[in-house]
Amino acid sequence: MPFRTARAGVHLESDELLLEMPGGWMRRHRLDGIEASTADGVVAAKHEARVQRRFVRMLILEGGTAPVVVITPPEQGAVAPNVVRVPEAPPEAAIVDVRAWEALAEWLLSGGRLSACSIADLARLACIATPQFAVVIGEVAAQRALELAWGTTGPLRGSGDIDTQLSPLVNAARSSSRASEALVSALAHIAGAKRRRSRF
Known about the structure:
- By secondary structure, the protein is of the alpha+beta class.
- The protein folds into two domains: about 10-95, no CATH class; about 115-200, no CATH class.
- The chain is about 35% helix and about 25% strand.
- It contains six helices and seven strands, in the order E-E-E-E-E-E-E-H-H-H-H-H-H.
- The protein has helices at about 100-110, 120-125, 130-150, 160-165, 165-175, 175-200; strands at about 10, 15-20, 25-30, 35-45, 50-60, 70, 95.
- A four-stranded mixed sheet has the order 4-5-6-7, covered by helices on one side. Strands 1-2-3 form a three-stranded antiparallel sheet, with no helix packed on it.
- Strand 5 (about 50-60) and strand 6 form a beta hairpin.
- Helix 2 (about 120-125) packs parallel to helix 5 (about 165-175), helix 2 (about 120-125) packs across helix 6 (about 175-200) and helix 5 (about 165-175) packs antiparallel against helix 6.
- The chain is elongated, with a radius of gyration of 20 Å.
């Protein structure tokens, strides 16, 4: 890649988005009452002696005092010809990794409800969650895994293996400390549920 822009860190709570900017300062955004949308945009990025316009994906959060824009890394987008007319991303837009952008956009566009997420969705979300929210995500993933495993046991119903159901979270935990916290929470919740079930 010709250059690499500085990234912002994403820390997601159930009702708040924290963006850790490259300079180390935090931008805090309430999510209650916001409307999320996505759009294609361009960023003018200077590389060596020339300026290139590059395509980015924009996540736009409106409803607060000013719109918040989160974009994908410009260096990963194609060079935009000058004749193409798409909106310019604002200079204050937060640049985040593509995976974080996709998880955040999917979460906000779906209404921000954990109950609507699959275990794979929850695993992606756990990677950008705060430690406190990761614990909640782990509990929801555990409940979903238990429902799937206990609901599919029997000779004609497929696998009832909880480990198989949790595999997206296990895989995410290999590369994300936040997903690891969600996994620990999920395993603790499952162990408690198994103990309670064995009493009956």
